[in-house]
Each structure stands twice: as structure tokens, then as C-alpha cells.
């Protein structure tokens, strides 16, 4: 058998993921500040990052594209901000990430990890509101995902010096 220069021929399909990182975030909270900086830093370090407005082809439906990107990613960086739980899409992404048992790297952006874990503080009213709109059974799945991710040791950013924090963790 002739040796090939193309590593993809000898690499099992399971190891040929399209994305290194799926970036989950609440757009109105972090898109134009922290998440942009994080995305650009990862991208400039040759990390293949899926961000909802970059990884989809024109005409793609939002939900299937996002769910496919989660499945086709090695890990997820989840930026949990104060309004994260107000978005059904964010919570659906989080639940799917947890169900697929992806490596999760949480960033607690101006929130306390224990509030994420217990759905208290800035999350309490949003989660209760979603229970009324979507039903307790569906929201239980989202609560379980928040509890799991809130229990993972991650990065906590409570001040405005986020650009310096990213550099300190070796991404500059």
C-alpha cells in the first residue's frame, strides 16, 4: 500500500471534524465586545471557530445549521452572560452540547457560576418565564444543562478588562 501525503485518507471520519470550537453566546450581551475579541483571538491562532454569523452558508436555516455545527465541533466555549437564559436558542445549544458530551469550556461573563448552577440571580426570572412559555419538562432539560455547566471550573470575568484576561491565558 502506497503511503499518502494526505492525512485525511488515514484519519477515521470521527476525527475529521469541521470545527475545533463551537462558540455559544448571547449576542446582545457580548457579540460586539468580548465574543468578538475571543473569536478573533482564537481564529488568529489557527483555531477553527464556529460563530453563528460566520459558519453558516447563505440560505441555511438557523436551527439545523447550529445543531449541525455543535455536532461537528470538538469542543464548545460557552460565554454565559446575564441575559444568556433569556434566549431559548442559547439554552437549546447548551443542552445539545451537554447531551453530546462535548468538552465544555465555560466563560462566566459578569455572572457567578453558582447562579448559573442554581439558576438564581440574573437567571431566575428568565428561566421561570420560559417555564410558563415552554413548559416545565422542556425547561428542565435546559436547567440540567445550566447546572452541569455551572459546575465546571471555567473563567470568570467580572470587570471590563476582558482583553487583558484573554492575553493572560495564553491566547495572545
From TrEMBL:
Keywords: Membrane, NAD, Receptor, Transmembrane. PROSITE patterns: TIR (PS50104). Pfam families: TIR. Residues 17-172 form the TIR domain. It comes from the Eukaryota. Coiled coil: none annotated. This is Transmembrane receptor. It comes from Forsythia ovata.
Amino acid at each position: 500500500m502506497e503511503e499518502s501525503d494526505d492525512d485525511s485518507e488515514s484519519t477515521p471520519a470521527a476525527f475529521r471534524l469541521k470545527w475545533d470550537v463551537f462558540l455559544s453566546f448571547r449576542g446582545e450581551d457580548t457579540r460586539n465586545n468580548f465574543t468578538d475579541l475571543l473569536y478573533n483571538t482564537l481564529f488568529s491562532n489557527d483555531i477553527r471557530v464556529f460563530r453563528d454569523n460566520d459558519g453558516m452558508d447563505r440560505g441555511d436555516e438557523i436551527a439545523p445549521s447550529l445543531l449541525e455545527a455543535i455536532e461537528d465541533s470538538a469542543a464548545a466555549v460557552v460565554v454565559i452572560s446575564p441575559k444568556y437564559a433569556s434566549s431559548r436558542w442559547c439554552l437549546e445549544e447548551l443542552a445539545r452540547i451537554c447531551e453530546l458530551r462535548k468538552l465544555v469550556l465555560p466563560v462566566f461573563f459578569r455572572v457567578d457560576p453558582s447562579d448559573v448552577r442554581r439558576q438564581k440571580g440574573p437567571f431566575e426570572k428568565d428561566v421561570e418565564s420560559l417555564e410558563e412559555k415552554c413548559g416545565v419538562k422542556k425547561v428542565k432539560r435546559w436547567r440540567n444543562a445550566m447546572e452541569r455547566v455551572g459546575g465546571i471550573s471555567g473563567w470568570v470575568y467580572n470587570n471590563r478588562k476582558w482583553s487583558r484576561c484573554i492575553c493572560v491565558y495564553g491566547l495572545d
